[in-house]
Amino acid sequence: MMKRFCGILAAFALIMSFAAASGEEVFTLHNGTTFGMTMDEVKETELRAGVTVDEPDGGVARLEWKGKIAGQEFAHLTYYFDNEAKLLDELWYSFDYIAGYDTINTGLIKKYGEPDFTEISGECYGWSVGKGFFNKIHSVQVNHTEETAFGNSVYSDAEYSQWLIMQSDGSSILISHFKFVMNNAKRNIINREEHYVIYELLDAEKTETILNEIQQKSSDL
């Protein structure tokens, strides 16, 4: 795993050296949308593909659509926009069930290669606290029990994979795929299953923080 971490750093150095000369391919999301788009641009891009996204009233700036995604029924797509600039900085796919986790993870590995971080490596990164359940990924790395108003809830069957895609300007795209089951310990029933794929644009400062942590862990061994 540490060899792979060092590989990330080396690859980043090469990207910074040659991106200006070779040009950088734009990282595309659902139906050709890209980070940095305005809400209107996302709407227009999706509409050209036959998808009409809705803008919910109030709350966090976002666009939503429900349908079949990656072969999974009852999927939910959400575009999140920076509240100040109103530019696209996150894309979430949420699924009602965890049954398709392995299939989707295999597809992500085929597209982006082996994950940089997994529950096996014990590494995990995320910056979207407040926009949804992504902050939960930190607490479900190890199965645990949480007290709630409805009795104790047990998080179990947690798995995740993350990819860090470097960009030539020093920023990066963090792709997170994770799932967990929440059980009612008292009643011994499943309260809900959670399954997400999240694409998140990290600025150069956040990217550097991750790379420094990786380098420090490598230096410690």
Count of domain modules: 1
What does the overall shape look like? globular
Rg, please? 18 Å
* Estimated share of beta-strand residues: 25-35%
Query: What is the chain-wise order of helices and strands?
Result: HHEEEHEHEEEEH
**pLDDT < 50 runs, ≥5 residues:** 1-22, 127-144
The level of helicity is 25-40%
Overall mean confidence score, pLDDT: 76
List the helices and strands and how they pair.
Blueprint: H1 2-22, H2 39-48, E1 62-69, E2 72-81, E3 88-95, H3 101-112, E4 117-118, H4 136-139, E5 144-148, E6 151-166, E7 172-184, E8 189-202, H5 204-219
Antiparallel strand pairs: 1-2, 2-3, 3-8, 4-6, 5-6, 6-7, 7-8
Helix pairs in contact: 1-5
Q: Which key features would you list for this structure?
A:
221 residues, alpha+beta, disordered N terminus, 8 strands, 8-stranded antiparallel beta sheet
Structure report:
The chain is of the alpha+beta class and 221 residues long. 29% of the residues lie in helices and 34% in strands. A hairpin with a 4-residue loop joins strand 7 and strand 8. Helix 1 runs antiparallel to helix 5.
